Structures are given as structure tokens and as C-alpha cells.
Amino acid sequence: MKIKVEQIEQTINKQRHPLYIISGDETLLIQEACDRIRKILPTKGIEERLRFVVDAQFDWQEVLQENQALSLFSSQRLFDIQIDKLSEKHTKALTQLGTELNNDNIILLCLPKLDARSQKTKWFSKLESLGVFIQIWPIESNRLGQWLQKRASSIDLSLTKDAAALICERNEGNLLALSQELEKLVLIHGPGSRIDEQMIAESVSDSSRYSIYDLSDRILMGKVKESLHCLQQLDAEGVDNNIILWLLNREIQTLDKLMQASTKMSIRQACQKQRIWDKRIPFYESALSRHNINTLNYMQRYMALVDQTIKGLHALDINTGLRNLVMMFCGVKTVPTELDIDPLSRL
User: Fold this and answer.
1) What ranges in the chain are assigned the alpha helix state H?
2) 110: which DSSP letter?
3) Same domain, yes or no, for 195 and 146?
4) Number of other CB atoms surrounding residue 278 within 10 Å
5) Of 56, 71, 100, 131, which has the fewest CB atoms closer than 10 Å, so is most exposed?
């Protein structure tokens, strides 16, 4: 049975199903849809939650055996399963799981976006017939402003149409970033505030003076224009170049560790191992999608040149060097640098 996100509570209240499938590529909307199900199920007798994050090496026997076992703590349990990338191994296991559903357990299955062809496959059609399917659609650009105004209203903020349009423009339609922007506005102006375009412009200007961590968010998400603007504002505020370089080096080291770990586990699991907050995982996923071991190595070597410049040991222009690093982070290929021109700088 296929339903809309808005029908989740109504559907569960009417009848509790053994399987709920959520699919899409909008991280924020998927997470919130899953949260709606997780929130209401405890009122329906579910007292224990088992969480499984599935990658290529995942052993499905643990899930299958747990599904057949009796719980030590409660009679009914939620199996919360997240799969970031489907494979034949996973679909076979899901098919088997579908044949072993029982009244004691509920399966919440979070899947990547499924196209029309995938939804017609035998394994998925069988699963859908056994439970509830919620497909998460991306929000069209012409509806994004209305979505943002509605979301603002839910946290006791009133956004004018122009203010919503400006926020959408600055965050390039990224729903997670838009949500974080609203949370920031609540902190700045307080609940019950009416936010107009001028207030948004001022808050964005002020936000670049919060700390260097705003620069971190922008470079990880690959926002070139905003990253360069933030770098310029930090320089205007007198932030020491060593601090900016420390931040850039920290993020390169983190990306390097995540990239190495991702050969053995999913990126989300690698982030969790590095103790990265769930809300920031999409930032690192975005950065990793633009980089490989070669680009990270190049940035590390270029960063060494910038560090030497700060110490007076190299003739590189410091402002140019930092701008180049920021653009590299964002995935923009800069003009040839000293690493390409000066053979000695490669050593």
C-alpha cells in the first residue's frame, strides 16, 4: 500500500502494519518521515528498537535471526534498517525477511531512491504488498519558498515571501541547510518573530562573524560563492590565518580518514566512528562525493606551501593561497598553482 508522508499517523492509528518502507534521496525529509513512524509506534505497543545500518559487508543473518528470536525485554520490537545502496545481496535478504514477518516485530526500512523500474521488480512488489510504502519526492524549486514558510510557521516564525526566496537562493535549495537557517533565525530573533528580507540579509552578514566553523559548513557543501564570501569576512574581522589554516587542515584530515574507512564500511558508519554528529554527516557525504585520494593529497601539499608562506618561508601570496584552498575544497579546479609550476615545491 502506498501512502503520502502526511498520512503516516492516520494509517498507523487505523491499522498497524508489519512493514514500513521509506524511499527517496532527500536526507532531511527521509529522516523526518522515519522519525514520525518511530514516534508513534511506542503508543502501539513497540517498546524496543533495534538499529541496523547496512553496507556492502553487512551480515543479514543477524537481522534474520533476531526476527525469529524472542525479545528479552518486550514482546514487540522495531527493526530500524537503513540501506544507503541496494545490491542483489540485500534484495535477496529483504525477500527472505518479507516471508518471515510476524506480529511481534515491525520493520522500518529506509531505502535509497527507487525509480519506477525498481518499484516493479518482484522483490519490491512483494514487500510493498505486505506493508506500507512512503515515497519521498524532492520539493520542486517553485514550491520551495512555500515549503520554507510552512516550516518556519511550525517553529513559530513568520517569513515574508521575499525573505523565504532570499534564504532559498543563498542555500541553493539544500533542505538541511534551509532547516538549519530557520533554527538560527529562531535563536537570533526569538519565537513569534516576523522575518523580512532585510533581517535575513543582516543575519547572513552577521553569521559570517560567528566563527570559522561557518566556513567549514560552506566548503564541505561545495558552495563556492558563499565560501569565498565567508573567507573574505573572516579576513575583514581579523581572524588569524593560522586559525583558518588549522580549520582547513582539520577537515582535510577528517575527509582522509573517512575515505580510508569507507572501503570497509558505509560513509555514514565511518562518520559515526569519527563521532561526527548525524546532522553534519550530509556535509561530509557531499565533500566526499567531490574528492578522491589524489585531490586530498594535492590539497595537503598545497596547504604545506600556505603554511610555509605564513611562516615566511615561501613567496606564495597568502590570500591567493587560502582562496585556492577554499575553491579546491568546493571542487573547483583552480588555475595552475605553484605545485604545478615550481618543481621544487613538489618535493
Assistant:
1) 8-14, 27-40, 61-68, 88-99, 116-119, 122-130, 144-154, 161-170, 175-189, 197-207, 213-220, 224-236, 241-261, 267-273, 281-290, 293-310, 318-329, 338-341
2) E
3) yes
4) 11
5) 100
In terms of domains, do 199 and 257 share one?
no
pLDDT at 166: 84
Which positions of the chain have pLDDT values less than 50? 205-210, 342-347
- Could you tell me if 35 and 99 lie in one domain? yes
Are 151 and 63 found together in one domain? no
Q: What is the pLDDT of residue 58?
A: 92
All three cell numbers of 75, joined, read 514482546
In a domain, 228, yes or no: no
Query: Residue 8 maps to which CATH number?
Result: 3.40.50.300
Judging by beta carbons within 10 Å of its beta carbon (0-12, 13-18, 19+), is residue 30 exposed, middle or buried? Answer: buried
Q: Which pLDDT value is given to residue 207?
A: 42
The rounded distance, in Å, linking the Cα atoms of 55 and 89 is: 10
The answer to whether residues 156 and 101 belong to one domain is no
Domain that holds residue 292: 234-346
Q: What's the pLDDT at 183?
A: 86
Residue with cell 521509506: 22
Number of domains the chain is built from: 3
pLDDT at position 102? 84
List, for residues 91-145, the tens digit of each pLDDT value. 999 999 999 988 889 999 999 999 899 999 999 999 999 999 999 998 888 899 9
CA–CA separation, 30 and 24 (whole Å): 7
Closest CA to 177 of 221, 210, 233: 221
